[in-house]
Design goal:
Length: about 180
């Protein structure tokens, strides 16, 4: 009986020690820094838009950009960088090309900001009913794409755009290897 009690006590002691070792090993690393560029709108029907439609789409793109940055930062997926130190470089590129397809200019912006990753967002508007929001994240050192997803949204409203951003961030959160 005494030997059995002693064995149980040793087992409890061993289990407690193992649990302490496990707890001390798990340390959360700080998330890598990312520059999330403003979302751009690619409108297949832009020639048919009046000024108010174009203006409302640009406002939604700005809202989606802000929402994307906030949600990525809030969820701790990345440390979202302030893009203002590269504003002149960004402005120079946007005057001559679309940042979602600029053949590496996004990497130059990311390097200027000193971040490990750069994210490019674009919204393709096929019609007022069918749109998709896209996000591509690249490693600034290698140029390798570490995440690229698209979500379809229905309806050209603030609410549908926000839901699209939420869905993209959910996809990003489900792929932790994209952040490391």
């Amino acid at each position: 009986m005494c030997g059995l009690l002693r064995a149980r006590a040793l087992c409890r002691l061993f289990a407690a020690g193992a649990a302490l070792c496990t707890v001390s090993v798990t340390v959360d690393a700080a998330p890598p820094a990312i520059a999330l560029l403003d979302c751009v709108v690619i409108d297949d029907n832009a020639a048919y838009n009046d000024a108010s439609v174009t203006q409302s789409q640009q406002a939604r793109a700005a809202m989606a950009s802000t929402e994307l940055r906030a949600r990525v930062d809030q969820r701790g997926l990345y440390k979202v960088a302030d893009n203002r130190p590269a504003a002149a470089l960004i402005d120079g590129f946007t005057k001559t090309q679309d940042l979602s397809a600029c053949n590496g200019c996004e990497l130059e912006i990311g390097r200027k900001l000193g971040v490990q990753r750069v994210g490019v967002c674009w919204v393709q508007k096929i019609s007022n009913l069918i749109l998709n929001i896209n996000l591509r994240i690249e490693d600034t050192a290698s140029g390798q794409v570490v995440f690229q997803r698209s979500v379809d949204i229905r309806g050209n409203t603030d609410q549908s755009w926000r839901r699209g951003v939420d869905a993209l961030v959910g996809l990003l959160a489900s792929e932790p290897e994209a952040a490391h």
